[in-house]
Amino acid sequence: MKNTTVRSVFVALFAALICIGAFLKIPAGPFGVPIVLQNMLCILAGCILGNIQGAAAVGLFIIAGGIGLPVYSGGASGFATLMKSTGGFFYGYFIGALVAGLIVGRPKVTEKKVTVANVIKISVAALVGFVLVYLPAIPWALFVTKKDFATIISGYVIPFIPGDLIKMVVTIILSVTLRPVAARYISASN
Question: Which helix (H) or strand (E) holds 26?
Fold first, then answer.
């Protein structure tokens, strides 16, 4: 199997995992913004696959929902969902996966599962990725809702920090474990 085919399979696999994450949500926050696994799965895609493939998986998920597949939180879909007050999170998912992937790079066969340097690199990537999810989400919510900054922070950010910290730890553990596996399959296909 060619390397590009294997990479495409990994992109599709992660896009499917992100889509499945839509059905696992917990209502939270005063504006109905749910706690979801999609942000974790997007950053995980970047941390495991690297920048291009990780961002491609997230892009595929966003496109799938945009054309009407019920893959957004709670089974929502359509272009209108991307325009709602929470629409900025979708763009943040893409940016977070892309930058996290840039930080860790493409997985390599020579990469060891657990080294201090590897754990630090993946930890930094995950932290930056999770923070970047909010970068477009906050101004987008400010623009759409016309609420003040403090209200948006209290409704769209603060309630989710504890859950995001837990998801970040899970992302780091899974990335350290699965990057060598992904590298082995991608490299074996050359």
Answer: strand 25-26
